[in-house]
Amino acid sequence: MRLINTVIFVILMSASWLWAQDKDRSGTIRGRVLDRANQQPLIGVNVVVENSVLGAVTNLDGGYEITGVAVGSRVIRFSSMGYQTVRVSDVIVRSGRITYVDETLAPATLQMEGVTVRSGLFSKLSDQPGSAVSRSFEEIRRAPGSGGDISRILYSLPCIAKVNDQTNNLIVRGGSPLENGYYIDNIEIPNINHFPTQGASGGPLSLVNVDFIKEVTFNAGGFSVLYGDKLSSVMSIDFREGNRQTFDGQLDLNFAGFGGVVEGPLAHRGSWMFSVRRSYLDLLANKFEIGTTAPPQYGDYQGKLVYSLHPNHKLTLLALWGEDHNNPDREAAQANDMVYYGSQNIYERTTGLNWQALWGKKGFSHLTLSLTSDQYREDFNETGTGLNLTRNHSQEKVIRLRNVNTIQLNRRQQLDFGGDLKQLTGHYHNFYAEHCNSLGDPVEEMALDKKFRSAAAGLFVQYTLKPALRWTMRTGLRYDSFQHTDRNRVSPRLSLTWQISEPTSINASAGLYYQNLPMILLAQDADNLYLRDLKSIHYVLGVSHLLSENVRLTVEAYDKEYKEFPMDPRQPGLFLLDEIFYRYPFFFSHSGSVSQGRAKSRGVEVTVQKKLAERIYGMAGLSFFKSRYRGLDNVWRDRVFDNRFLASFEGGYKPSAAWEFSARWVYAAGAPYTPLDLNKSAQASSEVLDANAINARRYPAYHSLNIRFDRRFHFAEANLIMYLSAWNLYDRKNIAGYFWNEKESRQDALYQWRFLPIFGLEFEF
């Protein structure tokens, strides 16, 4: 830690000595503008840097370049006759570097008929069916309390329940962590986190390097038929391309670790980009009380290669690899009140090749082939006795072929169609010792030595129609087949948008969604072959109103009905899949389950968002919801993610090109939990829940304030960003849960992250 402090001091002193006047520095903005409907280049688009005299007009290739732009945050306006005007905020111009801003413009059908639609900074969401938000690279990078984690940045949204600081699990509108889907450049990735929860989508920290991100679009419900096998949400991540003109480099030191990014041109027809990171959380854990139970180590490697075969054909090769290691011994477990200890070594690999083709002026397509391989080597022992509890030596591979096609029939009609093919393979050499389940009932020893192999296929078609002035309808049908269960599923979905007036629109959507059970769960028991696919029905109704070009108010109400969830007859009052959150890894020792679980979630969300157009930006959200399930005993109970009330605020102030101040405050009413049966826990010398009070009590309310200060330095050929962030500024003791302390033979509380200072550096050269 002394070495890190010394390095930070030297950098600070060097920056103070080298820094010159920011006003004397400038950079270049370059990019291409395409038609959003067919991806063809647009000629003659006016590109203007607002509050300046600088601008450009796109050429025959849709390209433009603006030089001599003063450093700092800029707003770029794209306008062309017959197209909706788009404004892009948070364009960071850096000294001596090229900032790439590629944009797509949507045809302005309403404008041609005498109605002007004020799209502004929210225009990219105009073709979404509702429940969607987007975040740019800069919005993700600077967010206080996120640490560059693209999942944690969403915690300020009212659709995300607050559970635990130690994980970035997304609990979307009452759903569980396994209901979320992730796509990077059209490549599906099951989990984008370090130390991933097998079978789910969460983890402690994102695997994705934020410096690769161009934009993130998150849809919390009612998403289209283009995405299948997920019940709650879809996150689509667009990686930027590397610099096609010159070599660029960047060194980083932040919460996620330390590392760097390098990029440059490829044979004058493409670009490459590569990053490597390594954690130093093990060093921080020894210095600050940050709530970790052991000092884990992790690293990741990411790369993107783009090559243009032809002006209309482009290949993209993407690689995302990570490895995680955590090996606390028994002594460390006893000192940190850990129930179990052992070794955990996880290796994640996703590699994909995408071919983008433009087919004339009517359409385009994406064809993607990818391989995902996740390898788990986990051995856990009971802290009290030292006996082996579980062994998870497994490897899961999925080969995916995905095709998405878009045809613009005319200015009022669009057709999207395609399909997915998957080959799933699992190798399991697992062991679960005899133990007691959550309610204290004995569970027999179970060994799993098996190979799992199956295939899945999906076809989808979506038709978009603008039948009349101010109306847009999207209707779609999805067909899925899963070889393992020999079942076929048909999922109809529909969305409607009514543009009531220039700033106001109403969105409504409804749809049927299916999801396969986790591969490891299907492989455990031959009887699991008869378990049905998870099912949910979405109904969403929302109103969106532009208070100005920079401020949007959104109100949404939703209803989600869940059916055919697996339930364990030995624990009729518990909702099985919620256990993957708080009973990992014992969740996978279930057998004899039946598909009779039901659940429902209903709520109302209010969001006000202000984009950065001048100096102030922010977002405030409120949510009122209820999430419940019905057990095999026919009793309706609250789910463990049912906060009921959420409130959040996130915003910032940029007084100059050099300084930025931001803060985020989140409040969540207490989530339900099942209290311990103290007498049975004492007798068993382990945690036993009270079967007569399942989810009958609630934790104290959660609230936390995170702040951040950014300072930029612009040199002649380099740039430096330094930031200081404080998580949980007023050191709130938010409770993560209660556990049975075997050493003291009593119930104790496990707390979430306390006050945590974070210092970060980004040096661009």
CATH topology name of the largest domain, in short, is Maltoporin, Chain A
Structural class: mainly beta
Percentage of β-strand residues:
over 45%
Total domain modules: 2
Helix content: under 10%
State the distance separating the first and last CA atoms. Answer: 26 Å
Written account of the structure:
The structure is a single chain. By secondary structure, this protein is mainly beta. The chain has 2 domains: 2-117, Sandwich (Immunoglobulin-like); 132-764, Maltoporin, Chain A (Beta Barrel), CATH 2.40.170. 7% of the residues lie in helices and 54% in strands. The protein is built from 8 helices and 46 strands. The strands form 9 sheets. The chain has a 22-stranded antiparallel barrel. A 5-stranded mixed beta sheet has the order 9-16-17-12-13. Strands 1, 4, 7 and 8 form a 4-stranded mixed beta sheet that branches. The protein is globular and about 80 Å long. The protein starts with a helix and ends with a strand. The model is unreliable at 1-6, 17-21 and 111-118 (pLDDT under 50).
